[in-house]
Amino acid sequence: MRTPGIAIAALACLLVTAGPARGLATKGFVLTTDYASGTLGVVDLASRAVTPDVADVSPDPVERWFRGLLYVVNRLGYDNVQVIDPAQGYQTVRQFSVGNGTNPQDIALAAPTKAYVSRLGTPDLLIVNPATGASLGTISLAPWADGDGNPEAAHMTIVGRLLFVALERLANFAPADTGLVVVIDTQADTVFDADPSTPGKQVVRLPGKNPHTAFARLLVGAPFPDTHLYIGCVGAWGALDGGVADIVVPGFSHGQPAAITCGGYAITEAALGGDVVDVDAWGPTHSYAIVSDASYNTSLVSWNPSSGVKLGTLYAPGGYSLTDAALDDRGELYVCNSSFTAPGLHVFRAGTDTRLAGPLDTGLPPVQIVFDEYDGSVAVGDPQPGERLALSPPAPNPARVAARLTLSLPERGRARVEVFDAAGRSVRLLADGVLPAGGTALVWDLADAGGRAVRPGLYFVTAVTAVATVSRRVAVLN
Q1: Number of separate domains in the chain
Q2: In this structure, is residue 18 part of a structural domain?
Q3: Last-in-domain residue among 371, 403, 430
Q4: Among 73, 273, 382, 438, which is least packed, fewest CB within 10 Å?
Q5: Distance between CA 340 and CA 36 in Å, rounded?
Q6: pLDDT of 48-69, one tens digit each?
Q7: Is the domain of 398 the same as that of 352?
Q8: Last residue of a domain, which of 371, 402, 437?
Q9: Domain membership flag for residue 354
């Protein structure tokens, strides 16, 4: 799940040459399967041409993209992670076991040499070096198991240095207890206390059972935006007893948030019209989900996270045919139709919900797609020195005429730099789009978006990327 691509603003205060953003992603990697065999295909995002069968994978795969490599989790009966390098003709450069019979579900990359693997068949979260396949240890999740002693760890995502692990808590694959999300400090490899004000080590309790979908991420608010993590709680299949849970990670510029909470459902299954199969966060008033009705017919719908209201149905091909939808950074939503009768990829314009293309022939039926962009849903953890998002102290500060800053990105990627007043109101947008790696010079002329001089007082210049936020204070004088 990904946030939309954004165009670079042509602003007088941006001291670099800026042109329209074409998006950082160039390819989509689509997993296909007929449940007897599996393959990897590649979609050229500019032409939407598909090259099928560039590599073989298992019939039950999940994939993640991280820093130039594709990591395929081969699940039930295969129990391994396959590392594919597009730069080497989609060769499998590494493949390593994660434990026979453990049924891995997801991989979250904290660094090129450190990753976490969730497994349904064991209460232990595995830590591995994906560059070698060597085990780095485990973290026990048994204290949060249901009655069978296994918490059934499934989907994961990383926000800053924190790893979020969804626990399905199943008994014979049926929901047995309320879903939980355990938060892990990836620096210490210990369970992070989600609510320090409550005695004991707290995890995030979800409003329903069976958190089945991947996490979707949305930044909301300013100058320190909260991170909203959406995950679909299915509950019992065929019953409207779940919804899209909303986990709020409070905004912060340094250190860790004081408390991580779940605010209930952003939208219920009753409002969506079916069980939640997939969730995609586009914006605070317009996002997407795949739902399955009581007859197990899937459809792609749009919904409003702010109001909890379904907006419309985009695509309803019938049968249990839609398995995955993903947003690229061009503002396009790719949807996998995995039916045997009419398989293929369908493309929609995010926001307007208009159909752009499809079906795109992928050979075998498609079940998941990811893109070769800097992936905010499986983000890097705490970067090494010299690899951090940074915003230099404003100079001069206090300022009377202008304030100069330098934004430093560890690699080319999307960033938004905005000025807010002390009440959190947006004053001026300094940069918004795909920026180069290294330093970008910025200057704020102490004017608002309309060119009017701002009043004396305290202001915040805030830089936001898919994985981090940093802010600097500027005092404006007469």
Answers
A1: 2
A2: no
A3: 371
A4: 438
A5: 13
A6: 999 999 999 999 999 999 988 9
A7: no
A8: 371
A9: yes
Give the pair of three-digit tokens for residue 99: 């434990």
Structure tokens at 267: 């939208």
Q: Are residues 363 and 397 in the same domain?
A: no
Pairing verdict, β 153-159 and 134-140: unpaired
**Which residues fall within 8 angstroms of residue 161, CB to CB, at 6 or more apart?**
185, 186, 187, 256, 381, 382
115 falls within a domain: yes
Query: What is d(CA 204, CA 261) in angstroms, rounded to the nearest whole number?
Result: 6
Do residues 64 and 125 both lie within one domain? yes
Domain limits for position 301:
27-371
Residues 341-392: tens digit of each pLDDT: 999 999 999 999 999 999 999 999 999 999 997 444 333 333 333 446 888 9
